[in-house]
Automatic annotation (TrEMBL):
Keywords: Bromodomain. Gene3D superfamilies: Bromodomain-like (1.20.920.10). GO terms for biological process: RNA polymerase II preinitiation complex assembly. Pfam families: Bromodomain (PF00439). One of its GO terms (cellular component) is transcription factor TFIID complex. GO terms for molecular function: histone acetyltransferase activity; RNA polymerase II general transcription initiation factor activity; TBP-class protein binding. Residues 53-123 form the Bromo domain. This is Bromo domain-containing protein. InterPro entries: Bromodomain, Bromodomain-like_sf, Bromodomain_CS, TAF1. SUPFAM superfamilies: Bromodomain.
Amino acid sequence: MAEGCQKEIGEKRRPVVDVGTYGAEYTPATKRRRVGEVGLANILEGIVDALKDRVEVSYLFMKPVPKKEAPDYLDIIKRPMDLSTIRDKVRKMEYKDRNEFRHDMWQIAYNAHVYNDRRNPGIPPLADQLLELCDYLLMEKQESLSEAEAGI
């Protein structure tokens, strides 16, 4: 070992920074906001998981529409949205409240109607069911969502 780096046997290792009780007594304002964001993200991710678990309704909306299956999709749909994109946004804590999240869920249904009403009339009702289920889950989590949003 290099000179000056050796320790005596039995000598205790000193912490690099001694925080003492400072960390326990003081929490900066940004910490509270972060807790609210994390709480909101956890609730919203649970909702996304519940929606994905309802495969009979959500299977078409799990991933972005493949160009191979719908070559003109991006010519018609200007704001594509799907559950994996929503999950990514949840994990990056991009949603600051449930309304932003719900708007992206609405976007899935809107896109399904715009693109499929005349082409594949069986798809829009699935998107509507997905949105209804989302609304139900948001209502069910209303109290914890309000607490999380208050912390942001």
